[in-house]
Amino acid sequence: MRNIIYIFIAVVFLSCNREKPDFLGGSLNDQFGELLVLDSLTSSTSDFNFSIVSPRFFEAQWSKNLNWQLDVVGVQSGATKSFTGFSSKLDIDNTSWNGSANDFPSFLTESCVATLVLSDNINTITMSTVVSITELKPLQDNLMLVADFEEGMPVNTIKFVQQGESMTFNIESGQAANGTSYYAMGGIVNWDYYLGSIKVPVETEEYINVSPLLLYFNMALIGGVLGEVPANQFMKIYLREDDGERYSYEINPVNWDTWRLVSIPYSEFVLESDPANNTKDPGTINQIEIMSLSCPSGPGTIVGGGTACPENMGLQVKTDIDFIAFSTNESYQP
Amino acid sequence: MRLIGICFCVLIAINLEAQERVKKVEFYGIAKTNVLHQSYDVEGDTTNISKANYGHSLIDLGILLRPTTSTEVAVELRIRNELGGFWGSSVTYGIRRLTLKGVVNDAIRYKIGDLDLEMTPYTLYNSGYQDLVNEATVFQMAREIIDYEYYFTGNAWRQQGIQSDFGFELNNNTFKSLDVNVFSTRNRTPDFNSASPERLFTGGQLALNTTYGQLKFHSANLHDLKNTVNDIMLYQNSVNSLSARVQLPDIPKFTLDYEGGISKANYDDLVADEQITINDYYWNLGLSYASSDKLKIRINAINTGPQFRSPAAQTVRLGYSSSSNIFPTIGNDLSIRKMGLLDYLYNDVKYNRTFDDRLDLYNPAFSNVLPYGLATPNRKGFSLSLEEYKIEDKLELSSHVHVVSEIVGSGTTNLKSFFKATAKANYHYKKWSVNAGLTHESTTRDGDSFEAIDLSIMLFDFGLDFNISENIALLLGSKYHTANGNELVAIYDNYNNPLLFEPVSFNDNKQMLNSLGFMVEFNERSTLTASASTFSQVDERDYKLNQFQILYRLNF
């Protein structure tokens, strides 16, 4: 009988072992605790030299886990790098920065304002600090820069501009996607979709063993404010191979008014010419053609057929480009 | 009308048959009329309707058919007419119960149809009400109506399925016999619109009777049946436990009892192709002392894991945060009226007829220590019970004390501490009979202001019956409930894990329900009760309700 009792007690106490979390459910401190800043926003160093391998990050600490957002904005370029997370501090794990931006425009060597916004259900706290970019980040491995228009047009570029009104096919300076110069393409052609183009020669032998899935065509592109530009303006890109095959990709519409990265794998281009070997060979691309197009407003006959878009009457096409480059394995990081 | 006609023909045929073979057919039944008038009183309220009359009459006719000596069919037919349902406009018909039971070879008993199932408080158990301690007769009569309508028989859940039990004699001096009880029921029908598969509840008990006591294995399994809909998620929960009760040979007045088990909840997400499994265990070790028939004391140590999942034992019977359609709003701004003691006893608040896989919302103003009974997850501590103490067969006393705490903190590392004390007394003297009960609960947690908890609740029941004559009794009943303090109630995710916490506070809230009634017993089968009640609630919005009830019952 005693043995049975001992077994009872043994069963009870041998089973007294369970893995326990710190607590069940979401933290009450996170849900109801007061939001207090424990350490203000600082940067790991005041000067960010992205040309050397060194940790560059931001630090701050507050009293509860919450969704936070840190935006670093270039004072001159307007470039933005954002970090978001759910935690109670910023450190090297969640704000490590390699100098890239969210999208075009890219950062310049300039001062940047970093702004941290902490918000719970009751309070919103904003903190800022200033950092300087002393050296820009190096270009990605295996990146081939075709044109950034900082020192003019690439050698042997062929430009074609239609007859039209206020035709602008020039290198402009100002708020570029990268650096200070970009190529403006626009104007008004009321009788044809085609406004103009540039043909840039390239040599891509280094990509001979790269899969079309892993070769990216990158370009910065900006339209204009809707209402001031046609809503249906668009661009067409041709990549020509040395066997005469021509592959195309259409970006339609171009209806945004801030610089954006357009990054397209070569595998998404479609054959538009008569086939030769009917195979995309990344190592044989010898020309890039970038065309600016828009539905003409008319009146009169539209060259190449199609119907006119009277709503575009008086609207000037704007399809400006910058930073044309090939990258492998991943899109370009602006 | 067709149903009545069929029933009439069946009854005549059965009667003729019954005249030939005695006891092959038996009839039983209940007829009931319940009429309620309620009026609502809030100062300055000119928007809400202030009076409500409702009630019903019903007849439940039970038929026991015994086609063979080893088979019995039980059917209960219902005809119900709502108050004011003239010319049959509100008449409903139905079958309240249909059960076939019998014995195979004088050895295996079986039951098919409606089953009332109960095992242990951790495996399969319909925990009792939270708004009573030791209720007055006038309230018990109202409570019986609820129990009858919602099939609450003791602590059993009404399910539909099949059950069988049988036993073996073991021809051993130590191990005497083995009893087996198994069941399988349909807990939920499939719903194609919500892709909810059919759900079964299966389980049983295996009891080994020894010279030292009984050793029992219990199993309760709630599980989805695959391919009854286009499955998205399949759920399975099993609770397996072992219990034993042993009288200590050296000290025979002491009895040791134990129950311990494990639960395993499995969620198979077929879309995301992932499984989530939640395991935990519980144990309850008790020592009881019985000096005589007049005194029984018991002490228990309890430990129920934070992830312990037992749907058939963790479903609350009454939704104390639910609403009634009787005076649903209050004030000219039509705020939702907070329900109270009168609603829980007489009005159409939410009662759970069965259990499901979700932990129910509970109202901490009524039970915060053990809202899901002993199966409440995340509790450890001990309880001390004076289970029975009799003085001269006139006064019966009992009391229970629970001192428990959380095992793991909720939203914080600080643990909640709980205290619950219950005391009951019944006194009978000549024509007088008095009963009273008091429950006090407190919940505390230290820490920063956002996590500190200090909640105290109290429920008092009092009843007095005076038999004016042999057939007429005066019934007096009173209930008083208070709640003061704050609590953070968990909002559970789909896996019954706390996700967020919702603050609730009670600013010295008070409820009181008083009833005075007369009961006339026409004979041992029929009674008529008339009662007048007043109810007042002191809360964010104070209000009063008055009620008059006539209840006629006839058993045959």
Kindly list the characteristics that best describe this protein.
heterodimer, A: 334 residues, mainly beta, Immunoglobulin-like, Jelly Rolls, 2 domains, six-stranded mixed beta sheet, six-stranded antiparallel beta sheet, 3 helices, 20 strands, elongated, B: 556 residues, Maltoporin, Chain A, 22-stranded antiparallel β-barrel, two-stranded antiparallel sheet, 25 strands, globular, disordered N terminus
Structure description:
The complex is a heterodimer of chains A (334) and B (556). In chain A, strand 4 (58-74) and strand 5 (80-90) form a beta hairpin. Chain A has 334 residues and is mainly beta. In chain A, strands 2, 3, 4, 5, 6 and 7 form a six-stranded mixed beta sheet that branches. In chain A, strands 9-12-18-14-15-17 form a six-stranded antiparallel beta sheet, with no helix packed on it. Chain A has a four-stranded antiparallel beta sheet with strand order 8-20-13-16, with no helix packed on it. Chain A is built from three helices and 20 strands. Chain A starts with a helix and ends in a 6-residue tail after the last strand. Chain A has two domains: 29-135, Immunoglobulin-like (Sandwich); 144-328, Sandwich (Jelly Rolls). Chain A has helices at residues 2-14, 28-32, 92-95, and strands at 23-24, 37-43, 47-49, 58-74, 80-90, 111-119, 124-135, 144-147, 158-161, 165-173, 181-188, 194-201, 215-222, 234-241, 246-251, 260-265, 270-271, 285-293, 317-318, 320-328. Chain B is mainly β and 556 residues long. Chain B has one domain: Maltoporin, Chain A, CATH 2.40.170. Chain B has helices at residues 2-20, 137-149, 341-346; strands at residues 25-41, 51-68, 71-82, 91-104, 108-117, 157-169, 175-188, 199-210, 213-224, 233-247, 254-269, 274-292, 295-304, 329-330, 335-336, 379-391, 395-405, 409-410, 417-429, 432-445, 453-467, 472-492, 498-523, 526-538, 543-555. In chain B, the strands form two sheets. Chain B has a 22-stranded antiparallel barrel. A two-stranded antiparallel ribbon of chain B has the order 14-15. In chain B, strand 20 and strand 21 (453-467) form a beta hairpin. Mean pLDDT of chain B is 91; it is low at 1-20.
